[in-house]
Structures are given as C-alpha cells and as structure tokens.
Amino acid sequence: MGVEIIPDRRVSSRREVDDNTERMSAGNPEADHILGGGFPSNSINIIMGHPGSGKTIFAEQLIFHNASDDRPILYFTTLSEPLEKVVRYLQGFGFFDETKLGTQVIYEDVGPQLAKEGAGALIPLLHAAIKTLSPKVIVIDSFKAVHDLAPSAAERRRMVYEMTALLTAYGTTAFLLGEYTEEDILLYPEFAVADGIVELSRRRLGNRDERYFRVYKLRGSRYLEGAHAFRITSSGLDVYPRLVSPRMPEGYEPATERISTGIQGLDEMLDGGLWRGTTTLLAGPSGAGKTTIGLQFALEGARCGEPTLYMNFQENPTQLIRTIRALGGDPEQAQAHGLDLVYASPVELQIDSIIVDMFRRIQQRGVRRLVIDALGDLASAATDPQRLHDYLYALVQHFAVSTITSVLNFETTGNTIAGHGMQNAMSYLSDNVVLLTVDGEERTRRKLRVLKTRGSAHDSRVREFAISAAGVSILE
C-alpha cells in the first residue's frame, strides 16, 4: 500500500533501531513510533505535565510492560500521592498484573522520609535501592515535589548532579515525573541533564478535553515532532501519532489508469472517468446529492471488486443501508465484495483518532477507493484551522502515493464555492472539483458542474442531473 502510519502493535520490551541505540519500549506501539523506537536505555527522562494529564498512567503502563525476572523495576512515590492511592487506581487498568508486584515491580513510599529529612534524603535512598535491588528502571513520582524541598538553587543543582552520576554509573533507566510547565525547562537543572523530555498536556475543547503527547527532547535520537493526541482508556494510553506527509518513492509516477465514477454521464464529463489515485472535492448545499454520488462511487468500486472505504459522520449505518437499497443496490452483496461502511458520531470526533483508524483500515483491507462524508465534520473535530489544513494536505499526499482514489464531500451554505475558507484550500489540494447546486420553485432542479480536473479536457458546461431508483444520471 505504501502507507505506514501505525507500527505493529506487537512490541518487545527492548529493541534495536536504525541508529543502533538499544531502546526501552514505552509499552505502547504508537508512543514508540513517535519516540523513534522507544526511550534510549540507561537514560534519564522527564515526564512532565499538569496534574491529571496522565503522567502516572503512562509511567505505570511502561513499567508493567518492561517487567521481567532479570532485574526488578522500582517505583518511588514521594510527596504527591500516597502509595495506597496509586496502587488502588492502578488495579483498574488492563496492563496491571498483580503477580508482578513485590518481585518484578516494587513500589516504595519515600514521602515520609523526605518530609522529615528534606531533599537531601533522596540520594542515600537511591544508593541503597540500587545497591540492594540493582533495578533496571527507577521511577520517581513526583520528582518535582523533591525538587521543591531543596532549600536553595545550589542545593537543587547538587542533588541533580549526584543523582545523575549515581544513575549513570549503575546503568539504570530513570523516569522523573513532575508537574512542570514549558517555562520550567529553561529554569531547572534536571532538564539540562535529561536525555529525554516528554510532555503530556490537556486542553479543554467545548464540553470535552483533548490530550496531547509531545517530545521536547530525545538525545541522539530521531523522533516525530509536534503534538500527538491520546486518550486514557481502561487499557492505558491510546496514542494517535500526528499524520505527516509521506516520502515520495524514488521514481514515483502518477497512475495512468481511468476508473469509473459509476454515474451515467459523469465519466464523459470527466474525459473518461477519474485518474486512479486522484482526489475529488464534491461540494454543494444540503440536498444537492453529495451522499448519493459518493455512495454510487463506492458501490461501483465494490462492483469492480475493489476494496472501498466509506467514512461517514452524518448518517448512521442503518440510514446508509436504506439509501443503498433505494438506489437499487444490495448492501450485503456490496459489503461482501469489499465495501466497508464506517460511521463515527460527530459529537465525540477527534481528528487524530479518525485519521489513525482510517489508515488502519486502509492497510488492513488494501483499500483502493475512499469516500469521506463530510469534510465539515472533520473541520469541527480539529482544534485549529492550521492543524486541519496540515492533516488534509498530508491525507491527500498519502492517497496519491498509495493510488487511492478518493471523493471528499463538503457542504456549502449556498450554490457557490467562493467564500468558504476550507473549500478554497481543498480546491488547490484536490485534483478534481465538482460543484453541485440546487434551484427551482415548482420542482427541485439539481445541477452539476466540473470546475477543475488535472490532466483532462473536462466538460465545463452546467448539466442537470436526476436522482432515481437507478441512482444519479446526467440529463441530456
């Protein structure tokens, strides 16, 4: 297929990557993909974020994934949450394994000793634990709380220096959790010695929260930059790597094959059909026939035995199946021949999760045709216009490289494409632009015009079309 967004979910606790650096998995294949294979072994890493952002869950998912009988993992709780509370909430996650507690994973509450003796007690505690247990991983939750106990900047710097020397000498991978902000990166000494810095953040968007995973630093490693969405589920963190534009394969040439839209008369207007691997923007007001045309394009793909994906955010599967039957189609037969109808409610849409799910289906099913109905729902799922534009640009490039022929529906507020910001942006990203209009007083008259096709001598006339039990047909 040529599209590789999500790596295989079967992950090992340590692995080799291109730079020959031994890695420790984050316990999540998508996070490992962002990290270039995982965290470098024997490194010091800071996991930062506001309270409730998911730092503790991320760290616990990591340690239970990497737990084994060779060397134990040590989890220090300090002055943030009592140990009993941490373990109690841990039991609700699917990655938790009670049989590993006390042997492969050891929790220790050092908060009372730190409260009594101050930040200086941390180094003796670490030294004793390393000498006794020789742990392969040490988590300190929260290190920011220990940092705040130090009476001066000089004491904090000395504590960080001694801790770094100790952890480095014994070949231990460390994770320091803390309620840090982006401004703290420039102020505190622990960030200067950290090999990796990862931020988990949470933003309020309307009546829901959106969470993001970002790598600020990963010494000597390639990683995927930017904000990557994630959700907290009963399995832990579900991470959705940000979609980036694909690398064009060496010697890449666009496909030279035409495919039918399945609509009588439209192929002729397009000079013989759509070039395979092109993207078509289908714009028009409500009731103009966008969904019907998109469905006919998808049904034609199934008729030809081409795996076809119909991503729908407006009509549930029952409504779509009813529409297919009204067009004279057989939904069960179409699905048996490769039509995949996918519905996602627009209420809880998150563009990152939609894109990841879409590409999983494309990879698993070898999709050749795709319909997105509609782009406006994707726009409402994006947090900002620039993020939406970047996603759509990368999306179209992936379709081109993978020779996936796509139709993207967009609802206008009138019979013109002018004045719609996202449509204007999609017009230059798309290979073909088809505008639908609706008018008429005594009866509804639907019209179609091909505004643009790349590499084709298209028919630019406005043509009326009809929707019947046989589907859409262009009138003479």
Walk me through the structure.
By secondary structure, the protein is an alpha/beta fold. The chain has two domains: 14-240, 3-Layer(aba) Sandwich (Rossmann fold), CATH 3.40.50.300; 258-474, P-loop containing nucleotide triphosphate hydrolases (Rossmann fold). 33% of the residues lie in helices and 26% in strands. It contains 16 helices and 23 strands. It has a nine-stranded mixed sheet with strand order 6-5-7-8-4-9-10-11-12. A nine-stranded mixed sheet has the order 17-16-18-19-15-20-21-22-23, sandwiched between helices. Helix 5 runs parallel beside helix 7 and helix 15 packs parallel to helix 16 (421-429). The radius of gyration is 27 Å and the shape is elongated. The model is unreliable at 1-18 (pLDDT under 50).
Task: Annotate the secondary structure layout.
Layout: E1 14-16, E2 22-24, H1 29-34, E3 39-40, E4 44-48, H2 55-66, E5 73-77, H3 83-90, E6 105-109, H4 111-117, H5 122-133, E7 137-141, H6 143-149, H7 153-169, E8 173-178, H8 189-193, E9 196-205, E10 208-218, E11 228-233, E12 236-240, E13 258-259, H9 266-269, E14 274-275, E15 279-284, H10 290-303, E16 308-312, H11 317-326, H12 331-336, E17 339-343, H13 351-365, E18 369-373, H14 375-381, H15 385-401, E19 405-411, H16 421-429, E20 432-439, E21 445-453, E22 463-468, E23 471-474
Parallel strand pairs: 4-8, 4-9, 5-6, 5-7, 7-8, 15-19, 15-20, 16-17, 16-18, 18-19
Antiparallel strand pairs: 1-2, 2-3, 9-10, 10-11, 11-12, 13-14, 20-21, 21-22, 22-23
